Amino acid sequence: MAFFWCTEALPLAVTAMLPIVLFPFMGILPSSKVCPQYFLDTNFLFLSGLLMAAAIEEWNLHRRIALKVLMLVGVQPARLILGMMMTTAFLSMWLSNTASTAMMLPIANAILKSLFGEKFNEEKGTKANNMNLIFCLSAAMQENRLHSVSTELQLLTAIEEKELAEKLEISSDMHKDMEKEREYQNRVWKAFLISIPYSASIGGTATLTGTAPNLILLGQLKSFFPGCDVVNFGSWFVFAFPLMIIFLILGWLWISILHGAISLSCRRKKKSDIRVDAEAKAKEVIKEDYRKLGPTIFAEKAVFFFFCLFAILLFTRDPKFIPGWASAFTPG
């Protein structure tokens, strides 16, 4: 079995079903003990999350939610990171961490390209060309010194050298500013890409369906303590959701401060023109992407309705303080 899992010599779905046939045939376990393992509550909880993730991704509901949140929080890097982390954590509460991360990374990548895209590269190229031209002029004037020239030409050359020195000083300052801006952009880019998987892992702790280890813990608890029914979706949520909020805020602050999206300096620094233009462009890109989604269609409304119904049914199945809908069905 390990060989088939590692090499994928057979499709994974086929490999997963092999024990039903091989275990009874080889005398390892009878079918009466093998087959029930495929119909555990935890398996179907995890399957329901996968089906919901497939429906949300198919109709771009996650994209609509993410863009709407980003339009509300703003386009400053720290706020964008917060918006992405909030959306990813919310999705990860109901879907798997991997699915939530895979859904949100393309959106983050598009926003980063609009925030730190072609404009900076064009300006950097233009300024680099200007510096090359200035250095060429300087070299040409140094070469002119080797020849005898008239007094008027020497005076003109001295004036040009003075202007050249001023231009070189200005260009040097501009180059330093550009390097600082580039370093800032690289750090913010890293913060964006790190924040999404971090928030997916944090958000997945809030619910039982958020990540597979939570469901495995529930399954093991029922196996070792069959009479213990303290842990259910509602009790887990009441315990884990407040902690998830705290860790999400701490994670946002840590990532933003570490990578420069939030400055601890008391003195408020003025934004560079490049940064202001980039934020304005990012805001327009987010609005344009949201407009491209068009009006909400029936499929999106249906998926959203069943998503809400899915969450409500999970909470009300067996809330303990009142009888849940599960009490209407005879156990077993």
UniProtKB/TrEMBL annotation:
Cellular location(s): Membrane
Keywords: Ion transport, Membrane, Sodium, Sodium transport, Transmembrane, Transmembrane helix, Transport
A molecular-function term among this protein's GO annotations: succinate transmembrane transporter activity
Transmembrane segments: 12-31, 38-56, 76-95, 188-216, 236-262, 297-315
Cross-referenced InterPro entries: SLC13A/DASS
Topology relative to the membrane: Multi-pass membrane protein
Protein origin, superkingdom: Eukaryota
Pfam families tied to this protein: Na_sulph_symp
Record's GO cellular component terms: plasma membrane
Family under the similarity heading: Belongs to the SLC13A/DASS transporter (TC 2.A.47) family. NADC subfamily.
Protein name: Solute carrier family 13 member 3
